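User: Predict the complex with protoporphyrin IX containing FE.
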Amino acid sequence: MSSVNPFAVAGASLPDGFLQGFVVVMVIAVVVGTLFDIVHKGSARYFFANMRNARAKGRKVGGGDLASIAVKTAVVDVLASGEFCNTRRRIAHLLGMYGFVLYALATAVMVFCYSNSADSTPPIWPALWWIGALMVLVGLYWFWFFIRVDVSAEGHSPFRLVKADLFVLSLVVSVTLAVIWAATGARAGVVFWLYLLATAVLFVGVPWSKFAHMFFKPAAAFDKRVSRANGTAENLPTQTRDDPEQQKRHSMELLRDAPMDMGLGIKREAPRHY
Ligand code: HEM
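Assistant: Here is the predicted structure with protoporphyrin IX containing FE placed in the model:
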């Protein structure tokens, strides 16, 4: 099963070029949806105006420092999902992110290079497709049922749906149907068409979902690091409680020498008081 190219099996009973055409339309939908999102929300205009403003107010950051910040952003924030403080959320994100990259890459290779003949597909591609799909499913079902705040902290049912769930939900439904379709023979039947429908919702839904965060977040993470380096820090406090300067600023005399773990109830105990 994991060595068969499922697109070659389904492709045998579909018109020539159908699968390739579908993938091209989905790529166009992501590009157009992301551009529409940027223009409609004015997010890029706001982002660059804010960045120019912060650069004008802060210290000058040299070329060498900017290069080092770019490397840290790529390695820590993008490749290692370093912005997540919660370890479980971070692992789930890493599974979802790397799984999706493997799954999408293997899909593109199998559809464009090998969908006409099942036998000629090098077995590495179906294997990567399965590994990627299973990583997405483990990461996203774990997130959906156990990690996300609505369920783990607010006590809502995992089956309650809101519009903000569009990205996670359409991705998980699309990959679940892909796996069921491939595991049950990969024919161009009902499950296949449902899989294409869920995939279309995932990619056409870009303007209404957080799909495009995978393009925006690296820029935002870079900007966050630059704003810390130039001292503006997005107007957020930079001192921690163990910093003597911060302790001096405390409004209550009594709390100036308070132990460091005092008042951090939110970190000691998960919020489950519903
Ligand atoms: C294939 C690429 C990616 C996929 C499939 C993906 C998937 C997801 C999912 C499902 C969530 C919601 C889960 C959660 O909030 O814990 C999420 C959130 C998040 N992702 Fe990604 N992601 C991708 C790429 C990236 C990249 C490149 C970054 C770069 C820094 C990033 C940063 C974040 C952050 C900071 C959040 C949490 C904050 C928020 O909800 O906006 N992601 N991602």
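The mean pLDDT is 91.
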